[in-house]
Design brief:
Layout: H1 11-14, E1 18-22, H2 39-43, H3 45-53, E2 57-61, H4 78-88, E3 93-94, H5 101-108, E4 115-117, H6 125-129, H7 132-139, E5 144-147, E6 170-172, H8 174-188, E7 194-198, H9 207-216, E8 219-222, H10 227-233, H11 248-261, E9 264-266, E10 270-274, E11 283-287, E12 296-300, H12 302-312, E13 317-321, H13 334-348, E14 352-356, H14 358-367, E15 375-376, H15 380-387, H16 393-396
Parallel strand pairs: 1-2, 1-5, 2-4, 3-4, 5-6, 7-8, 7-13, 8-9, 13-14, 14-15
Antiparallel strand pairs: 10-11, 10-12
The structure holds adenosine-5'-diphosphate (ADP) and magnesium ion.
Length: about 400
C-alpha cells in the first residue's frame, strides 16, 4: 500500500503548524567528537527546508548512538545541531531533553519557519519500548507528523511508530518517500528483467533476502563469503574459506527453489584465494573446482565478473546488497569494484540501480561511483528488511495515500 507523503501537504496545510519530524541523524563521530560524515544530516535537508518554506515550525526528533535509556553526555545531539544550523544557514535550537518543560518552552517560543532539535530520544528507555505515555508526551509537542528516518523505520519505537496514534496527518518525508519509491518499487513493480546481486560474508545473515529475491527476480547473482557454503553443498572442496556447515542444506534448497521457479541463479566460476586473511596475503586465482587445501577465497575471479556483467547487461532493474569480496583489502576488491563500475555504466543506459546495505554503500562510495547509481539507500537494516518483504512498522504507521 502506498503511503501518503509530505508532497501532498501544501503551505495552507502547514503554515504555522508544529510538525514533529523523525530524522536519522545517527552520524559517525571521530575521536575528537567531531562529525566525520554528515551524509545523513544532508539527506534530511529537502524535508526540513520544504517544511520551513511552507511556514511550518519544525521539531526534529532523532536518536544518536546507543545510550540504553540513560542520559549520556557523549551522545548528546549538540554537534548535530551545530552542523545542521551551518547547513540550513539559520539557528537550530536544541532542547535539554526531548520531552518536559525545557522542550515545551522552546517549542512554545518558535516562530513559523523555525527549527528545534529535540535531544536524543533514546535517553529514555520508553522510546525503544514504544511506551504509550512517552509517545503521547513527545507527540504533544506537535500537531503533524513526518517520518523521514528510513534507517529507523524497521523499529517500532515511540518516535517512529507510537507518536502516530496522537498526530494527524502522518506522512512520509521526502527521503522516506524516495527510499520507498525505489526499494518497494523494485520489489513490487520492477522494470524487468530484474536482477539481484547478493554478497557479504554469511549466508545466515542473508537467508531472508535470498529467499525473497529468488521469488521476485529473474536473475540472482551470488558473491561474497557465502558462495563457499553453496560450493561445499555441491560437494566441492573449499579449503579454508568461510563455510557455514549448518547452512549446507539451506544452500541446496535455495538452488532447488531457483531452479523450480526458472530463476537464473549465478555462482562465480573462479575465485581469488589468499593464504591468510590479511591485506598482504599471497593470492592465487583458480576455478572453483580446484580450490587447494589451506587457501581461502576472498573475492570472485575475473571470469566470474565477466559472466556477471553479461548476465546484467539486459537488466532494467538491479538491486545490489553485499560486497563480492573482502573489498576492505585492495587485493580482494576487484570483484566488488568491477560490479560497482558495471552498475554505474548500466545506470547511464537507463537501468534502475539500487544499492542497499551499509558495506555495499561504503564500497560504492570508495569506488567513487555513488552519484551514478539510481538510488543509494540510507538504511542498512531497514533496506534489507524491506527487500526481505517484511513490513516496516515505521512505514505501516503512516497514513495510506
Ligand atoms: P552489507 O553491509 O552491504 O549488507 P554485509 O555486512 O553482509 O554487507 O557483508 C560485508 C562484509 O562481507 C565485508 O566486510 C566483507 O569483507 C565481507 N566479505 C565479503 N566477501 C567475503 C569472503 N569471501 N570472505 C569473508 N568475508 C567476506
Ligand atoms: Mg554490513
Amino acid at each position: 500500500m502506498a503511503k501518503r507523503s509530505l508532497t501532498s501537504l501544501s503551505a495552507a496545510d502547514l503554515q504555522g503548524k508544529r510538525v514533529l519530524v523523525r530524522v536519522d541523524f545517527n552520524v559517525p563521530l571521530d575521536e575528537s567528537g567531531a562529525i566525520s560524515d554528515d551524509t545523513r544530516i544532508r539527506a534530511a535537508l529537502p524535508t526540513i527546508t520544504d517544511l520551513t518554506a511552507k511556514g511550518a515550525r519544525v521539531i526534529l526528533a532523532a536518536h544518536f548512538g546507543r545510550p540504553k535509556g540513560e542520559v549520556n553526555e557523549a551522545m548528546r545531539l549538540t554537534p548535530v545541531a551545530a552542523r545542521l544550523s551551518e547547513l540550513l544557514g539559520k539557528p537550530v535550537v536544541k532542547t535539554e531533553s526531548c520531552i518536559g518543560p525545557d522542550a515545551e518552552a522552546k517549542v512554545s517560543a518558535m516562530a513559523d519557519g523555525d527549527v528545534v532539535l529535540l535531544e536524543n530520544v533514546r535517553f529514555f528507555a520508553d522510546e525503544e519500548k514504544n511506551e504509550t505515555e512517552f509517545a503521547r508526551k513527545l507527540a504533544a509537542l506537535a500537531e503533524v507528523y513526518v517520518n523521514d528516518a528510513f534507517g529507523a523505520a524497521h523499529r517500532a519505537h515511540a518516535s517512529t511508530e507510537g507518536v502516530t496514534e496522537f498526530l494527524t496527518p502522518n506522512v512520509a518525508g521526502h527521503l522516506m518517500e524516495k527510499e520507498l519509491q525505489y526499494l518497494q518499487g523494485a520489489i513490487d513493480e520492477p522494470k524487468r528483467p530484474l536482477a539481484a546481486i547478493v554478497g557479504g560474508s554469511k549466508v545466515s545473515s542473508k537467508i531472508g533476502v535470498l529467499e525473497s529475491l529468488i521469488d521476485k527476480c529473474d536473475k540472482v547473482l551470488i558473491g561474497g563469503g557465502m558462495i563457499f557454503t553453496f560450493y561445499k553443498a555441491r560437494g566441492l572442496a573449499v579449503g579454508k574459506s568461510l563455510v557455514e556447515e549448518d547452512k549446507l542444506e539451506l544452500a541446496r534448497e535455495l538452488e532447488a527453489k531457483a531452479k523450480a521457479k526458472g530463476v537464473q541463479l549465478l555462482l562465480p566460476t573462479d575465485v581469488v584465494l589468499a593464504d591468510a586473511f590479511s591485506p598482504d596475503a599471497n593470492t592465487l586465482t583458480t576455478s572453483v573446482n580446484e580450490i587447494p587445501d589451506g587457501w581461502m577465497g576472498l573475492d570472485i575471479g575475473p571470469d566470474s565478473l565477466k559472466a556477471f556483467q553479461a548476465a546484467l547487461a539486459d537488466c532494467k532493474t538491479v538491486i545490489w546488497n553485499g560486497p563480492m569480496g573482502v573489498f576492505e583489502f585492495d587485493k580482494f576488491a576487484a570483484g566488488t569494484n568491477g560490479v560497482a563500475h558495471t552498475l554505474a555504466e548500466l545506470s547511464a543506459q537507463g537501468c534502475c540501480t539500487i544499492i542497499g546495505g551499509g558495506d555495499s554503500v561504503a564500497a560504492v562510495e570508495k569506488v567513487g561511483v555513488a552519484e551514478k547509481m539510481s538510488h543509494i539507500s540510507t538504511g542498512g537494516g531497514a533496506s534489507l528488511e524491506l527487500l526481505e518483504g517484511k513490513v516496516l512498522p515505521g512505514v505501516a504507521a503512516l497514513d495510506d495515500a
